Amino acid sequence: MKHLFHKTISINTGKKVTSMIIPELDHPTLHLAWAQFDQAADAMNLDHKHRERLKTPQRSLMVSLPILMDDGRVKVFMGYRVQHDSARGPFKGGIRYHQDVNLGEVAALAMWMTWKTAIAGLPYGGAKGGVRVNPNELSLSELERLTRRYAAEIFPLISPDHDIPAPDVGTNPQVMAWFMDTYSQQVGYAVPGCVTGKPLAIGGSLGREDATGRGVVNVTMEALQHRGIRLEDSTVVVQGVGNVGSHTARIMRDAGAKVIGISDVSGGVFNPQGLPIESILRDHTHGMPLSDMNVGDHVTNEELLTLECTVLVPAALAEQITVKNAADVRCQILTEAANGPTTLEADAMLQDRNIFIIPDILANAGGVIVSYFEWVQDGQHFFWKEADIHERLHDIITGAFQRTLAFSQEKNTSMRMAALMNGIDQVAQAHNLRGLYP
Ligand code: NAD
Predict the structure, then answer these.
(1) Residue 54 within a domain
(2) Which of 21, 148, 299, 365 has the fewest Cβ atoms within 10 angstroms?
């Protein structure tokens, strides 16, 4: 860790780069990702030759997807795939189905994937994809047609050696299965390694479904230990009860913490004595919104974020903690399971109040770590035991946590800056070594 910045700092020319204007990418989440990058780049005195390059995605594809709806209409949806940087290896990143998805948001998420894979030491670059659609408004067959058409349209960018998608908000193992099948139909044989987060029966990995939540719990436990707080004395509030939020809540509860608040898009429930997580997750899986459950007091998502707790886990969407509510957040540890849940200004306010923040690119890396295991297993046609996957995930993510913590203490900086500087430095080193083509 001591020599982390050797290559990038030693050749710094000190020139300032003016901020870029890329109208096609204009989006608040990308502005957040850029502002974080600028802060870290300034702090590490990153060579100017890397700055613009690392802020601009390497390749962006926008596709239109005409889909036959069940009522006979043809509706066109917009799809995207952004490949941010491949200096360290093939592109890797999830696919999001959400009504607010656009090119700029996908570019931000792709950029964060680059830093995330670098700090976890995975041999990948960052990418992300998405379709602007509310998947809850589609029938299953419409969802399948949309997925297959999206996979076919972005096919030229995808392959196990080039770019490997995975699930994100609004997508799941079934969507990945349709994606894998469409890819395989194009090439004429089964290619499990073209996508991760698949069902087990077609080359998925044990431990992938709950990997992001498990990783969130692993790093939260390290943070509790660092702060001298016993897990059994901890209370936890989770925003979002999707893939990441549900597994985080369940594993936290199983480990001995008390989960006192949880929400979905409809609102949340709160019980200071602890919530019955098993029945909440079961009813939610059967389609019951949290606002309809009688398991505690009902709270809005805004109220949920300001509940007093030991650990707050935003596990839904970006920009949930802002200048408007940061002063009211009452946790000791903020574990960012979602991507970009905290704005830059709110981040500074929370740090001033000594709230320990585990940044998204570290906290939610469990998903891509086990996706990496899945990709390796698919390539080797040899599958590992679940216990091995849990252990290797734990080793990688807690190792990244401890490196980041040590570096943040050494440089007297935040966990977010330490993680970003580490990730950016790994990527900058790869660019230095590979040089600029042509
Ligand atoms: P998901 O679609 O499974 O779940 C999203 C959850 O957020 C749902 O419970 C939904 O009701 C809730 N939600 C949506 N809009 C909301 C709002 N306005 N207010 C409150 N809650 C709202 O998605 P997921 O895969 O669990 O992803 C959640 C977050 O974690 C995202 O930021 C995603 O990028 C990030 N992430 C996911 C993975 C993964 O493996 N799935 C990996 C890394 C990071």
Answers:
(1) yes
(2) 21
